[in-house]
Every structure is written in C-alpha cells, then in structure tokens.
Amino acid sequence: MARLTAFPAFHKVSGRTVLIVGSGAAAAAKARLLGETDARLRIVAEAPGDELLGDAARLGAEVLHARFDVAHLDDVALAFAATEDETEDRRIADAARLARVPVNVVDRPELCDFTTPALVNRAPLAVAIGTDGAAPVLARHVRARVEAMLSPELGRLTSLAESLRGAVADMIPHGEARRRFWAKLFDGPVAARALSGDVAGARAEAVRMMSAEPDVAGFVWLVGAGPGATDLLTLRAQRVLQEADVIVHDALVPPDLIAMGRRDAHRISVGKRKGRHEVTQGEIGEILVREAKAGRRVVRLKGGDPMVFGRVGEEMAALSAAGVPHEIVPGVTAAFAAAASAKAPLTLRGLSSSLVFATGHDLDGRTLPDWAGLALGGATVAVYMGRTVAGAVAERLVEAGLSLDTPVAAVENASRADETIFAGTLRDLPALADRGDVTGPVLILIGRALAEAEQVDAAPIVPETARRTSAA
Ligand code: SAH
C-alpha cells in the first residue's frame, strides 16, 4: 500500500485564536476557510484589501492593520502566512516555528507544518480531502463529488446522533449490539426522517429503536470477491463488508479488497495456496461457526465467485449443521474476467453454444475428463487451476479428438494491475506449465469461439526464445 507523507487529523480550534497574516486574496481565502470553524480569527494585514475587509466583517474577525510581529502569535492555535511575499512569509513561518505554533504558508508546501484539505462541511460532520500536495485541483474535483453524495441535512443526523450518545451508552451494552444499533440508525427510518428535515420524528423513532430488543444473532455471508480488481467487487459485497465484524479470507484475495472492510473488523487469513494448506476446510467451517455463534457478523471472502471451485459446499454444510443463518453473495468468476481481458466471447452464435467450467486439478490417471467430449461438441472450456497441468489438459483434449489448432487464451492475474494475456493454440498450451515467469493464478480458455477474440495485447504462449531453440 502506498503511504501518506502527512497524517490527516482534525485540529481543535473552538474558542481559540487562529492567526492569518496577509492583505490580499490568499489571506481572504484562508479567512473564509477558517470561517467554517468557530475559531477566533486574528487577521494581521499591512494594507487589507476590500475582499479581505468584507470577509473579516462578515466573519466577525479581528483585523490588525500592522506588519507581522511575534507578539501576534500569542495564544495562537494555528498560523497562516498568506502575504504572497516570500521573504515575509518565511519570516512568519520561522517565528511561528520558534513559538511552536503549527504554520501553513500559502503555496509553499516546503514551509508548511500542515496543509489545508478541500473541505465538505456538514458540521458536526466534516470530510477533508487532501492529495499530499500532489494535485490540489483533483482534491477539489473529488470534493465536488462528495458534496453531491452527502445530503445537506447530514449535519442534522450527526447532531441527533451526538445528542443520543449518552442515552445509548446507558441503554445498549458496549460492543456488537451498540455498533449494530448505530448502523441501523444511520441507514433506516431515523436517517430518512432526519434527512428530510423531521428531526423530532427521527428522535422519536430512535428512542423507540433503543428500547426494542437488541439484535445480536450471528450471520455469515459467503462472498465472492471477484478476480482481484477492487471495482469488480459487487455493491452488495461492498455493503456486507462494511457490516462485517469478522472477515475470513483466502490467500487469493488481494489485500486491497480485504482492506475494504471496516477498519476495526477482525481479519482471519485462512491462506490456502497451491501445495500449502495451512488451514483445513474443516477448520474453516469451525471458525465460521464459532464466530457466528459468538454473535458476530462474518464475511467469508473468497476469490471470484464462491460457487465456482470455491469449496463453499462444505462451508454451507457446516453452517447449516450448526444452525447458523447464511447467505451467498455472488462474484465475478475468473473465467469472465479472463474473457473480458482477452476480449474473447465465450459463446458465439453458430460456433459455440455452451460453456464448461472445468478444473485441471484432478486430471490424474489416463481417463478422459467428462468435459473433453463437451469440448469436442463445440463447448468453450474455461480451465481453472490448470497452469501446472497445462500439458495434461492439452493431451486429454487432443486424445478426445480436438484439433491441435484449436485457439487458446490464457490470462494470468486477470483484472489485476499485473495481468498478462497469452494467446496460441492447443499445440502451444503445454509450454505454459514450463514458463518460470508465469507464477500468478491463470485461467485457460479453450475453444473455437476464441478465434473471434480481439487479442491485441496478447503475448505468445510459447516464449520467442523457446520457439527459436526448438526450430533449430
Ligand atoms: N472461485 C474462484 C476460483 C477458485 S479456484 C472463481 O470463481 O474465480 C482458483 C483458480 O481460479 C486459480 O487456479 C485460477 O485458475 C483461477 N483464478 C482465480 N483468480 C484469477 C485471476 N485473477 N486470474 C486468472 N485466474 C484466476
């Protein structure tokens, strides 16, 4: 994860003095920004312009017609240098630093102890947006979108919540029940009323909710996380992730997706990777049952779609046997992500009218897999877990009668930043297993429909070097 160079925090200024030095538009802009708070504003300006004087009068700020002097820093919580004169701004910044007052110098990030975010104000709720100085215009752009997302009345709901805090603390035990009460409050009829301006109605509804039976039953969602790209997560998956107290995830699910849950959610890795089963399927079932029985809301996050080679059947059976209510949230399975990446249709009128989800994993022995016949009949085959057994997959299909020239696409890390697309034919496929440079999850697509793929960015399955060697 990329790291920030500044830590976002909210600085208390209520009833305290904030100093702004400068006479022009930059100082006026800072005055308006600080005017969103109830800080006392002290403006030091040698020759205050009309804009600044107008804003100062409207905001009830004190204006001192003077050149900056260290005495102006007395009792100051934060200082802003906005004289638009480099030497003067630097002098102010140095003085503030000596006086241990955090200082911001307009347009001089190197002189700043802190920077000011783009602000969405729904007091007492606030959203501060920063880009670490990288792109202030982008911050404003994001602010416009956040402004549009948040009802102007959100402040009322926030204030209502604040006024209920004491009563909630007395009536609802700390922990799960309380968190769930708040989640319901912000998402149900209370929120609807407060946001439509009916604060009294919202309060009455909240009081009714407080005295109702607390809802502490555990629950498990078996959630498809999709192939890896965060924006291929479904909205439902995103919502339940926000509700989960516990997230139980596989090794195949990228950290970005796991991070999308609540920050305080407990995360349990049951990392299963090829050849390294750290937690058995039985143990996973036990973990899910144990957490749900403790009254927690559990998300079991699985790569792709949980119902496709996800061994979800065993987990559902464990939950049912223990009487734990559960639901499935579908996800984008790897075959679909791979087809999208390779721009390859999976069915094609007149050429291929069925699709097989197959695994290369259990190709032991000499028997033809049951799907080989379907491939011969024209089905497109999506092979999961097929990389290391690519040779056996190709061999069985050719044995079944498929042409060596049948088109193949293989996508490694489909939908992720490090995705690679390979294209070739059944003749090339065995080479995939020998490639030391292919180490991520690979989905193999085989069938005539793939001839229609727009494989613009595809690399050959057989690397150029190997091709030359075998030709020699
Ligand atoms: N339930 C998952 C599949 C789990 S089996 C789903 O619906 O996608 C694991 C196999 O899925 C891997 O061996 C690989 O074949 C495939 N796979 C999962 N994610 C993938 C990705 N991002 N790119 C390519 N293949 C992937």
Q: Beta fraction of the residues? A: 15-25%
Largest sheet: 6 strands, mixed
Question: How far do the termini sit from each other?
Answer: 46 Å
CATH class of the largest domain: Alpha Beta
Helix/strand-derived category reads: alpha/beta
CATH superfamily of the largest domain: Tetrapyrrole methylase, C-terminal domain
The coarse silhouette is: globular
Poorly predicted regions: none
Mean pLDDT over all positions: 90
Q: What CATH architecture of the largest domain would you give?
A: 2-Layer Sandwich
Number of helices: 17
Quote the CATH topology of the largest domain: Methyltransferase, Cobalt-precorrin-4 Transmethylase, Domain 2
Number of strands: 20
Bound molecules: S-adenosyl-L-homocysteine
3D architecture notes:
Strand 15, helix 14 and strand 16 (380-384) form a beta-alpha-beta unit. This protein has helices spanning 25-34, 50-59, 86-98, 136-149, 154-171, 176-187, 189-195, 199-211, 235-243, 255-258, 281-293, 312-321, 334-341, 372-376, 390-399, 431-434, 464-471; strands at residues 17-21, 40-45, 62-65, 76-81, 103-105, 118-122, 125-129, 219-224, 246-249, 266-269, 272-273, 276-277, 297-302, 326-329, 355-359, 380-384, 407-412, 420-425, 442-446, 459-460. The protein is globular. It folds into 4 domains: 17-116, Rossmann fold (3-Layer(aba) Sandwich); 154-211; 219-332, Tetrapyrrole methylase, N-terminal domain (Cobalt-precorrin-4 Transmethylase, domain 1, 3-Layer(aba) Sandwich), CATH 3.40.1010; 335-471, Methyltransferase, Cobalt-precorrin-4 Transmethylase, Domain 2, CATH 3.30.950. The mean pLDDT is 90. By secondary structure, it is α/β, with parallel strands linked by helices. The strands form 5 sheets. The chain has a 6-stranded mixed β-sheet, with helices on one face. The protein has a 5-stranded parallel β-sheet with strand order 3-2-1-4-5, with helices on both faces. Helix content is 36%, strand content 19%. S-adenosyl-L-homocysteine is lined by residues 227-228, 252, 302-305, 308-310, 333-334, 337-338, 384-385, 411, 413-416, 441-443.
